[in-house]
Design brief:
Order of helices and strands: EHEEHEHEHEHEHHEHHEHH
Largest sheet: 7 strands, parallel
CATH architecture: 3-Layer(aba) Sandwich
CATH topology: Rossmann fold
Number of helices: 11
Structural class: alpha/beta
Strand content: 5-15%
Shape: globular
Number of strands: 9
Number of domains: 1
Radius of gyration: 20 Å
CATH superfamily: NAD(P)-binding Rossmann-like Domain
Length: 328
Amino acid sequence: MRILLTGASGWLGRHLAPVLRDAGHDVLGLDVAPGPDTALVGSVCDEWLVHRIFAENGIDAVIHTAALHKPDVGRRPAQAFVDVNVTGTLNLLEAAVAAGADRFVLTSTTSLMINRAIRDEEGAEAAWLDETSGPLEPRNIYGATKLAAENLCRLHHLEHGLNCVILRTSRFFPEDDDSERGISGDNLKANEFLHRRLTPQDAAQAHLVALERAPEIGFDTFLVSAPTPFSRCDAAVLKRDAAGVIARLFPEAPALYAERGWQLPEMIGRVYDAGKLERILGLRCATDFASILAALKSGEDLPFTHDPAYAAPSPPPPSSPALRGGWA
């Protein structure tokens, strides 16, 4: 298939493009910033450009990863989130329908599932989150606009028959994340593979499977995260003794962590359950908490990337000429 990949220069795009090519697909990359897999520099907000891409390149399918993200909250105006995450998605959906493309994969986020109560870790039990969780009450403009984008996909499936698969991904970016009671860096990322993280490699594989299965699915939403070792019956004790639960499930974990000077989480306030991904799409993320412990035990490199200096690619300065024309 000839696939339009938006956000091709981004963290997910740079991992996804080679996976798609290795599967035999022709990848056409679009991004506001240049990159090795970006054939055209431009914005999904540009309706004319988006329709031109479809008209001139015989696009069969779209994987839409381009978005403003949580780190942009506070440094970009709310209207920019609406422009990119909502209007940009609408432009792509309308162009896909007009051109007769038959499948559309949207990269969404687990962030839109987190209301203020979950964010503040209220309640006596860890919040157990899957595709049935709700009502959805996003706590910021990022989550609100991604939820709107999801609903646009649903409408285009209902009204036009466009096969749409939505992937709500948990954390996979390499930069530093929110502090968790003094735990940070590699230690924090390792802990999050218990309940709220995945690798970009696993995220890319999920997009490939969603693309290939979209016609038989029609429309559906999947949470994508490393498989949690916990069960719902652990929800209460995770709020008061997460380290004890982890030690019960992984007896080697305390010693392996101590050797590196790491800490197990004392409390876990939310758990993402990616069971539906495995049941329906047959995909189980390859990297999980057991993979982290195996790397610690063997001394091999950790199976994830932590790069505090990482910054999302930036568009060219306004004075640069627009890079338009045929695909490279």
